[in-house]
Amino acid sequence: MSTEQITRERVFSELRKCMDPEIPVNVVDLGLIYNVDVSEKNNIDIKMTMTTRGCPLHDTLVSDVKKYVNTIAGVGDINVQIVWDPPWSIEKMNPAVRDKLGFGKPTLRFQIDYEKYMPMKTGKVTKQEDGSLALVNEKGQGFMVNENIIEFWENCTGDKTINQLADNFSEKLGLPRQQVEQEVVQLIQQLMEAELLMPPNKD
């Protein structure tokens, strides 16, 4: 009895369940998946990239990609290749998602003093019917996220500066402070744009 041929569309469907560890967007809409090949034996080769070369959760994301694709019935070997050419940019995101989250705007809505601003979470965590998690802002807009993002958001209690949050994140991951700083700052900005953090008070 032959195994049913897996389609690229089926692979992409599963990959849309895989969320980036730092940005509340799935890896397909984020533009990280460059190519998917499925062989006659249902072996799957995926070419993807990361938002930055120094991404501290590189291995976590690759593992998550394999985990979701491995749920497809009849799947063979799964190979994930990380490539840096072409480099990722905000323009590679799904335009609808990019506009919804407010990413890539020429000017930021919020100017942040990283030494003084203490991010304060707003909104709530909800669980979807399929078991996935989402952060919902006060306007009722939901954003699919993973546990890493939720844990970071939960730590934004209004009593820690961005620098302190970066220190905590660095210690948790066991990575150099400079390696995670850019990702933390980026996540703070994106959570604010999604109205999941209170904006800085204007003096």
Automatic annotation (TrEMBL):
What InterPro entries does this protein's entry cite?
Fe-S_Maturation_MIP18 (IPR052339), FSCA_dom_sf (IPR034904), MIP18-like (IPR002744), PQQD (IPR008792), PqqD_sf (IPR041881)
Q: Where is the MIP18 family-like domain?
A: 8-80
Descriptive protein name: DUF59 domain-containing protein
